[in-house]
Design brief:
8% helix; 1 helix; five-stranded mixed beta sheet; 84 residues; Ubiquitin-like (UB roll); two-stranded antiparallel ribbon; single chain; 2Fe-2S_ferredoxin-type; globular; mainly beta
């Protein structure tokens, strides 16, 4: 189980019951923009401040350094993120 710190004060626990980070964030009523849920569109793009994630499959959407797509990724460590 990993801790996902969102912004300044929200902490979400990520465990194997969530298929990806987007699903874990939604379970905790955190709003993330999304469209495809597959890594094609990039609408769910978030900022990764610290920690490591792994993509379940390589996204087709362009992702800049320091960004990630929660719809197709899982944490490898505790992470600190920002949702736009």
């Amino acid at each position: 189980m990993y801790r996902v710190k969102v912004g300044n004060n929200t902490v979400v626990e990520f465990d194997d019951s969530a298929a990806n980070l987007l699903q874990a964030l939604e379970r905790h009523q955190l709003q993330v923009n999304f469209q495809c849920r597959e890594g094609y569109c990039g609408a769910c793009r978030c900022k990764l401040n610290s920690g490591e994630i792994r993509y379940l499959h390589e996204p087709l959407a362009f992702v800049r350094q320091g960004e990630f797509l929660p719809c197709c990724s899982i944490p490898l460590t505790n992470i600190d993120i920002e949702i736009p």
